[in-house]
């Protein structure tokens, strides 16, 4: 007996749901490209600090209730930047980069995508946020001055802590935000000479957004729920 309660997935709704992963991936690429530009002197620390200031002023308009806490945290971070810059001097470059890759993957896999999609009102992604903040500290230790360290950590906080909360107040749809970030991050990473990473990012994002939903729908059509009797549990059969 075929289960009549199965609700077929809609392809474009699945695309919309999966695009939030692309949005988070775009933020990671934006962060990596900015670090690349700082490390090879394509971007100065003062320029990134200016960008951070503009972003922070924009976020404060939405998160004005937390203005005092944000200011205290920024000044505290500025004071700790010289210490953070020398935090990993005793470790090899290979060890640091292996840890960075692991933490970036941990960040992506433990992000609170329900909050990102607007299904919950409270962000519950402590592991994800802590892992990306640790990445920013590792990046800071690879940069030449404490101003570079301060700017990259502040940029990380704005991207991964303030932006997800502030964007819930935007009137722009999540899909529009996702594709603005996607194209912006793709162009920015290419201009940052991250050619291989840029191609990998675009390919992965398009697969997540358009091919994975199609696979999900095909799996639902291929497998069906069969009932042997009115009181038996559903069983997945080939």
Strand and helix layout:
Elements: H1 11-39, H2 45-62, H3 67-85, H4 93-109, H5 113-116, H6 126-140, H7 146-166, H8 174-191, H9 195-222, E1 224-226, E2 235-237
Model description:
This protein is mainly alpha-helical and 238 residues long. It has one domain (11-237). 71% of the residues lie in helices and 3% in strands. The chain contains nine helices and two strands, in the order αααααααααββ. The protein has a two-stranded antiparallel sheet with strand order 1-2. The longest helix has 29 residues, at 11-39. The mean pLDDT is 84.
Provide a brief overview of the structure.
The protein is mostly helical and 238 residues long. It has 9 helices and 2 strands. It has one domain (11-237).
């Amino acid at each position: 007996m075929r289960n009549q309660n199965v609700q077929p997935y809609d392809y474009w709704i699945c695309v919309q749901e999966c695009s939030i992963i692309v949005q988070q991936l775009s933020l990671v690429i934006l962060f990596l490209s900015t670090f690349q530009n700082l490390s090879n002197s394509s971007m100065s620390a003062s320029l990134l600090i200016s960008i951070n200031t503009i972003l922070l002023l924009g976020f404060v308009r939405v998160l004005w209730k937390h203005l005092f806490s944000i200011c205290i945290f920024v000044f505290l971070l500025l004071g700790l930047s010289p210490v953070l810059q020398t935090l990993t001097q005793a470790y090899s470059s290979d060890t640091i980069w292996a840890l960075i890759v692991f933490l970036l993957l941990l960040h992506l896999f433990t992000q609170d995508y329900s909050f990102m999609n607007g299904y919950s009102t409270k962000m519950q992604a402590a592991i994800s946020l802590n892992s990306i903040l640790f990445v920013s500290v590792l990046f800071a230790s690879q940069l030449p001055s404490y101003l570079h360290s301060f700017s990259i950590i502040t940029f990380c906080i704005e991207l991964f802590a303030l932006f997800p909360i502030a964007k819930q107040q935007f009137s722009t749809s999540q899909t529009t935000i996702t594709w603005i970030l996607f194209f912006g991050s793709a162009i920015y990473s290419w201009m940052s000479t991250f050619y291989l990473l840029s191609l990998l990012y675009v390919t992965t994002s398009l697969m997540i957004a358009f091919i994975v939903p199609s696979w999900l729908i095909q799996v639902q059509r291929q497998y069906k729920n069969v009932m042997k009797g009115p009181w038996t549990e559903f069983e997945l059969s080939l």
